[in-house]
Amino acid sequence: MIKHIVMWTLQDEAEGSSAAENAKKIKEMLEGLNGKIPGLKHLEVGLDIFQASPAWQVVLYSELESREALQGYQQHPEHQRCVEFVKKVVVDRGVVDYEI
Fold it and tell me: Rounded to an integer, what distance in angstroms lies between the CA atom of residue 45 and that of residue 29?
């Protein structure tokens, strides 16, 4: 199993919305992928509640069946639609993938 974790810091304003509004949209879009992508076992998105500094405002936690499933997830058209939006509203990104 692969665990795929991504964290984002958002622009204060982008695409006509505040960072908080864009964070909610990212959460909704990504969590909407559950059940749509082969090999994606679980995906959840959390929003920072303490506004830590330096901040990661949004975090994605997902579990995939295999490395191949992660590759398929990353290339899937529904995921790519999310990526297009996320790229427009983020300032920074961190990612880690590990296998258990």
Answer: 10
Q: Look at residue 28 and give its three-state secondary structure.
A: helix
Kindly report the average pLDDT of the chain as a whole number.
96
Q: Which amino acid is at 60?
A: L
By CB neighbour count within 10 A (0-12 exposed, 13-18 middle, 19+ buried), where does 45 fall? Answer: buried
Beta strands 17-18 and 58-64, pairing class = unpaired
SS3 80: helix
pLDDT digit string, tens, across residues 33-45: 999 999 999 999 9
**Residue 66's pLDDT is what?**
98
CATH topology of domain 2-99: Alpha-Beta Plaits (3.30.70)
Report the alpha-carbon distance of residue 33 to residue 60 in Å, rounded. 12
- Tokens 């509004």 sit at which residue? 21
Domain boundaries, the chain: 2-99
SS3 72: helix
